[in-house]
Structures are given as structure tokens and as C-alpha cells.
Amino acid sequence: MSRSSTIKLGLISLALLAFGLFPWVFANPTYTTIAVFTLIYMTATTAWNGFAGYSGYIPLGHAAFFGSGAYAFAVIAANNHLGAGYGLFALIPVAGLIAGLLAIPVGLVALRTRRHTFVVITIAIFFLFQLVATNLGITGGSSGLQVVSPNWPGATYNDPFYYVALALLILAVAASWTIRRSRFGLQLLAIRDDEARARGLGVRVGRVKLTAFVVSAIPIGMVGALYAYFVGQVFPQFVFDPLFDLSIALMAFFGGLGTIWGPLLGGLLLEPLQQYLTFSYSVGDLYLIIYGIIFLAVILLMPRGIVPSVSDRLTNRRSGRDRASPPGQAPAGGDGDVRAGLVPNPGAGT
Question: 234 - beta bridge partners?
Fold first, then answer.
């Protein structure tokens, strides 16, 4: 195993340990509530980036799948008179599959268009979902639906939701990593770079885009179901919220669109900030102003996002040390073995 791979593995292990111990170290319910929402948004952003970042198509309607997962969970639990408890978590994959099935006709319609028109179509379809949920009897209309809440101790009430959200995040990251390094991922990247040329090289563009679109909807439907169970109620204006799409898009661009770690960093930094401002100040939309300022700063200083920009600077610095080293001598900080592949490729999914 190379030195860079060892370092990455060590950092991932430390991150998993830190996330796993978080509810034990910060047992305050306020902190764990913020943590649950943060994990939900990190998962949704990772899933969204798995389509948008790799294909180059920017959807602003994935809140339709978030809301569909939330309503699927609430309706199934209510119609089957299911009691609260750990067993209800089993409905989360079901809600994700329902969101994925709904993504098929949505994708068949929206993906017939090209990139700029695609954005508008996804927004229109999202508002159609919101309108249906507001007027449909099975969803409770504008009154929404109530979800049974488990009778767990108050001090540790958030912990099961936290660990389920963490498991969903791990699954989403594993899926994104697998796609990025697969032949399917290479086809998506080819579509992002030049769709017409990819089609000419034999890529089944329509099928690849639709598959990625559906796959991205499933984790978002799952976290929508988790949200419904955690909050205990589902209202159309909250689960079909246009700010959800703007938030996950901003988090992905902020951290680094098209990378594996960028959406995670964006969600980890921005969602706690939003939750903190909501808890601390009566002005509920203050975080939108802060988001705008942060986004403008990143666009001006690091237009590709934090992860790619930092990776580029580290690569340039390491390349400068390589050029400054005498022939046959390892660069400063190296392990004495100058080989191709020691300098990471900034576009290789960091």
C-alpha cells in the first residue's frame, strides 16, 4: 500500500471513529439534533453529487424524492397501524425504493432535454409534486400527516436516529466511491465532458443518465423517510421545500462538485451553521444571507470548491519541490522512492 493510500485510510478510520463517538462525547440533545440533520444533508448532497457532479446535469428538483420518501414512510406506517420503535427503521429502504421508482418517469421526461433546459424541467416537476401532496387526500393535504414517535428516554432519544443516519451516509459514500471508479462512472464523466462524443464512442447516453438519476434519488428518499420519523410529522411545505435543493447544490459546489469528499465537507460545514443560526436567532432566513456570502467568497477565491482547490495547491507545491530536487535525489518529505503515481491526480475523486 502506498503512503498516500495509508494516509487516506488512516484519516477515514479517524473520521468514522469521531462520528461513532460523537453522541457519547456530546450528549446534549441540541447537539445530537444538529448532528442528525447534518448527516441527513451530507447523505443527500453525496447522492445528488453522484448524478450532478459526475454527469454535468444540475437538477434542482430532488426535493421531490425527499418528500416522496417522507410521505411513503408516513403513509405506510399509518395505513398498517405500525407501532413506534426500532422496527419502523425497516421502512426506510422501502421509502427509498419508492422514491427511486418515481424517479424513473421523472428522468424519462427531464433527461430528454439538455443541460440548461433540464434545470428548468426539474424545478417544474418538483413544484408539481408539491402541488399534488398539498391537494391529495392520502397525504393529508395541507394539514400533513403525523408519524408515531417512539417512547425512548429523552437523554438518548436522538441516538438511534443518529446512527441510522450515519449508516445511510456510509452507504451513500460507498456508492459514490464505487460509481466513480467503475466503468459506469467513466461513462458519466465522458457525458459530462462531451455528451455528443461519448455517444459517438458507444456510450448509451440515455440509459446511463437515467440509471444515475434513479440511483441518486434512492438515498435521498431514504433520508426523507428518516426525517419524517425523526421530526414526527410531514407537511408538504417542509418536505417539498425548494430550499432543500438550493442547500444541497450549494454544499456540493462549496466543497467541490464532482468529487467524493467535497459534498461531505460542504454538508459538514454549512448545515451545522444553518442549524446554529436557526436555534440562536429569531430571524429564520439569516442563514440564507450567510450562505450567499460564503458562496460568493468561494466562487471568487476557490471557484472549483474547497477540495479541488486545496488539492491543486498541494499538487503544485509538491511538483515545485520535485523540480527543485537534484537529479536522482528524492524530494523533501519523500520516502526516497521517486515513482510515477506519488503525486495524486486532483481530478481522481478526492
Answer: 145
Which residue reads 457532479 in cell numbers?
53
What's the whole-model pTM score?
Answer: 0.88
Closest alpha carbon to 220 in 123, 96, 129: 96
Task: Tell whether the model's pLDDT for residue 324 goes beyond 80.
Answer: no
Q: What is the pLDDT of residues 108-148, one digit of tens each?
A: 999 999 888 999 999 999 999 999 999 988 888 888 999 98
Number of domains in the chain: 1
Give the CATH number for residue 60: 1.10.3470
Residue-range definition of the domain harbouring residue 117: 3-322
